[in-house]
Specification:
Keywords: Membrane, Transmembrane, Transmembrane helix. This protein is mostly helical. It contains 2 helices and no strands.
Length: about 160
């Protein structure tokens, strides 16, 4: 052994020499340690049979039932009256027509309200003293949307 001066760095270990194995410490502690795969506790597992001294007769595991093919739906058959989305009742057409007309009416009301607000505030601002006016584009845009949606609904009721 060589003497080292205080504060000297010890030499690094030789990486080519094998490291000693850790000593055996016994089985892992109960309650969550590592367990090797395929290790069964005594008297348990797939090959265990009841010993004759317990007085319980051995029961063979249940046999698998014979193979049955999975259920298959019968082939699709188109309905004789056409697909449900092709046949629309007269009651449904009347509802669409009513909703379309109502949507157009509400759209016109919103559009006119937006135009009215804009016209009134503009006329007040354009007076001799000047001022600020509001362009109510929100109600006008919503009115146009309702008019278009109502027209599409009305068109759908006539098809």
């Amino acid at each position: 052994m060589t003497e080292q001066q205080p504060g000297a760095v010890p030499p690094s270990p030789d990486p080519s020499s094998p490291q000693p194995a850790a000593p055996y410490q016994g089985p892992p502690p109960q309650g969550g340690g590592y367990q090797a795969p395929y290790q069964n506790p005594p008297n348990q597992g797939p090959s265990f049979q009841n010993p004759p001294d317990q007085g319980v007769p051995y029961q063979a595991p249940p046999q698998n039932p014979p193979y049955q093919a999975p259920y298959q739906n019968p082939p699709y058959q188109a309905p004789s009256q056409g697909a449900p989305y092709q046949g629309v009742s007269d009651g449904q057409r009347r509802i669409w027509e009513t909703k379309g007309k109502r949507g157009i009416g509400f759209g016109v009301a919103w559009l006119l309200a937006g135009l009215l607000i804009t016209a009134i505030t503009y006329s007040n601002a354009s007076g001799s003293s000047g001022g600020v006016y509001i362009v109510a584009w929100g109600p006008m845009a919503y009115g146009v949307y309702r008019i278009i949606a109502g027209a599409l609904m009305l068109n759908k009721s006539k098809q």
